[in-house]
């Protein structure tokens, strides 16, 4: 018979044996469970904050690379995106997540879409300029 079963009867049910630790009374275990349940919402909030931080870091990294790539275009949309980006970074550093969520992200998304449109316009313009200068150019878009 295992060591921990010796002496176990219905009267000792108020205590629980956990591994090599001493016997814990049921009320202590109940208290631990209650504390864990009470802290679970705070733990979820902390986990959400970590996830948000991770997502913002990714967003900032991607926006920085887009801006570096598109800056030679020097359009108003890029200037607007740069300014919004600075504002959102400042709000982020000051933990103004509600303002970011309610206003800044929507503006940032709109500015990003404008930059993409300007970028594609620029690329199409360059493509048409190349095409007009070399009218014999054929662009093959078929799949191989």
Notes on the structure:
- This protein is mainly α and 144 residues long.
- It has two domains: 12-52, no CATH class; 62-129.
- It has helices spanning 26-70, 76-93, 97-133; strands at 15-16, 24-25.
- Strands 1-2 form a two-stranded antiparallel sheet.
- Helix 1 packs antiparallel against helix 2.
- The longest helix has 45 residues, at 26-70.
Fold topology:
Blueprint: E1 15-16, E2 24-25, H1 26-70, H2 76-93, H3 97-133
Antiparallel strand pairs: 1-2
Helix pairs in contact: 1-2, 2-3
**Mean pLDDT value:** 76
Number of strands: 2
Give the domain tally. Answer: 2
Q: What sequence of helices (H) and strands (E) makes up the elements?
A: EEHHH
Number of helices: 3
Distance between the termini: 72 Å
pLDDT < 50 runs, ≥5 residues: none
How would you write the strand order of the largest sheet? 1-2
Shape: elongated
| Rg computed from alpha carbons, rounded to a whole number of angstroms | 30 Å
Largest sheet: 2 strands, antiparallel
Give the % helix: 55-70%
Structural class given helices, strands, pairing? mainly alpha
Estimate what percentage of residues fall within beta strands: under 5%
């Amino acid at each position: 018979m295992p060591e921990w079963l010796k002496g176990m009867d219905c009267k000792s049910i108020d205590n629980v044996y956990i591994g090599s630790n001493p016997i814990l009374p049921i009320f202590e275990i109940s208290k631990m469970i209650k504390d864990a349940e009470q802290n679970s919402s705070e733990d979820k909030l902390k986990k959400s904050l970590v996830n948000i931080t991770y997502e913002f870091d990714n967003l900032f990294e991607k926006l920085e690379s887009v801006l570096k790539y598109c800056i030679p275009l020097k359009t108003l949309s890029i200037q607007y995106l740069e300014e919004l980006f600075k504002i959102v970074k400042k709000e982020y550093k000051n933990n103004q997540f509600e303002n970011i969520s309610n206003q800044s992200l929507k503006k940032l998304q709109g500015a990003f879409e404008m930059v993409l449109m300007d970028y594609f316009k620029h690329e199409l313009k360059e493509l048409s300029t190349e095409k007009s200068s070399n009218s014999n150019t054929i662009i093959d878009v078929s799949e191989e």
